[in-house]
């Protein structure tokens, strides 16, 4: 079901503007793009959000059970359910487009990096507030994105300032955050199950433009940008490429999911490339075989490298055990491989006729 034009403008303005010119050095016919678009929409995004919504609902249920009968085993179970939900999020994190942009949900699902500790400060204040305030639907409609999702839930489950086992207030806060989080995930999932990618494309003159191809272009641009974000924010920044090493800047470091999150991202990249049929890889093999194989090999190599890294590499509470090789030295081959993956993908997308623009994630 198509959304109103005003609604589409909101989505686009809060993520990025899709460049409207589409030229092809080697032109594929329109039907060739249907396979990659539908495959990515259905197999990667819709299925991904379905899993994410389900694990978010399980997290809500587990949190409620923990607070009804607090115990160490219940806390451990809730933490495990939380980890599953985080990794489900990592499968769709690459896409800041469509319904997840409404109400700033993309940033509410994960408020990171939080270099100023905003989530912690706001949660402390909320834990001391009147519990009835948190039960108000109006409160959560106006609540900061810093306390509406996984970043806040991780703090409540892992930070020493909070104790769901012993504090009624902290448990009440946990159940409210997980409930709001689950409802948000469910709503985004519902829109992907009933809508189509082209519903969230705004074109100035839709009669003259292929909205399906523009939607695929949006997917590809988001994928390119996310590879850069994974390299820069998830690896280089916490490991001190741009300053001092600070592993507390790593993603989900409290729950020790930093490396697993990256591994899941890299698995999602290959899923995007091979979703179809025909997949983007299939079409690229026909039109740009050398670039297609080059990207395939680099994506596979990046994943292999990430899976071979020590599990504790990005854990700030554990000493680095390899005295011969620094953390940066260990991760450098992966950083290089990600740079190449991003460059090869950009080259392939351009060769297939999609003009790519600025990086919407960092404002370039």
Kindly describe this structure:
The chain is an all-alpha fold and 364 residues long. The protein has two domains: 5-43 and 200-351, no CATH class; 47-194, Up-down Bundle (A middle domain of Talin 1), CATH 1.20.1420.20. It is built from 14 helices and no strands. It has helices spanning 5-14, 30-68, 72-92, 105-109, 118-127, 131-134, 137-142, 150-158, 168-194, 211-236, 258-274, 280-287, 289-308, 327-351.
What's the total count of β strands? 0
Q: What is the end-to-end distance? A: 33 Å
Shape: globular
| Overall SS class | mainly alpha
Average predicted local confidence, pLDDT: 89
Percent range for β-strand residues:
under 5%
Along the chain, the helix and strand elements come as: HHHHHHHHHHHHHH
CA-based gyration radius: 21 Å
The total of helices stands at 14
Tell me about the largest β-sheet: none
Domain module tally? 2
Spans of 5+ residues with little confidence (pLDDT < 50)? Answer: 1-27
Provide the helix percentage.
55-70%
Signal peptide: 1-24
Domain Imelysin-like: 47-343
Main location: other
Keywords: Signal
